[in-house]
Predict the 3D structure of the following.
Amino acid sequence: MDEYNIPFNKPFMTGRELAYIAESHANGHLAGDGKFTKKCEAWLEMHTGAVKALLTHSCTAALEMAAILAGIQPGDEVIMPSYTFVSTANAFVLRGGVPVFVDIRPDTMNIDETLIESAVTSRTRAIIPVHYAGVACEMDAIMDIAKRHKLLVIEDAAQGVMSTYKGKPLGSIGHLGCFSFHETKNIISGEGGALLINRPEFMERAEIIREKGTNRSKFFRGQVDKYTWVDTGSSYLPSEIIAAFLWAQIQEAESITQRRLNIWESYHAEFETLEGGENLRRPIVPSECSHNAHMYYILLSDIESRTNLILKLKEQDINTVFHYIPLHTSPAGLRFAKYNGDLSVTNDMADRLLRLPLWCGLEEYQKRVIEAVIHELL
């Protein structure tokens, strides 16, 4: 890396990835559901306590599988935040569902659990909490609302691998959970994801959906003498190459997470002196949440201050980014979704949030980032 240019993200490799990919080739198995896929799924089940974990080619695929498993039909409503990636909504729109956006909390940037119940109607089928920055939503309250209204809870835990809520791994609390292993996440495989199944009644159909609507998994287990098309589905399996890369990352999940937490804590400590005035607000992590340092962001006073800081840091070859454009303001959001309330917190936070570089290897450059931010904001 050019020592003068600090990228926003740099994908980390443990050193075993290419050897495992070569091993999968030598084994003559590059398609899905091979040795490394099974290893990754077993680790996810052990780590989260999920009844079943299924690797997918993306978190988008996991969300689409969840929408099918939820039985979403045209006109069915799903409650979610607007401050999220497009896949959270698009997975349900593809089934004819209607995303219903509610506002976020100003402290965690997560869906405001106190606003969910007022958005429930006779058409509501599911709640989709998104664990922003790997910090958990208030899951006890969300699960209580879901239970009382007979709704499914599908956790978008794309950013939540290795994070917990009251000691429970994110993705394992709702009926279904979705992970991402995209190169911008903590544990990566380039593209990649996983569906966590936390209720046994979803297991068999999830396998069928993932295998293009066939009972192929039963065939390979010797439960049927041939396999055939039995249900709706698509090709949601990742290749064994992706799984081999991912297995190398999973083996170092604890150390990767700790390195990121150290970087996060350094930012947090150094910026404490800037907080309290109008210049900056640091992330807030509730005491019941253990996070994974997926990102470090700061909240500036307004969009002009953020734009100016991005430009000033760019002049010093330090690359920073803002995050989501709220879905309720997007062309597709206006077309396919509706919202409950004015979403004023979402609008405000989206204009002010700035993400700083955070990746394994940043340690030797982080002081430069910190000094530049402090210099520009003082």
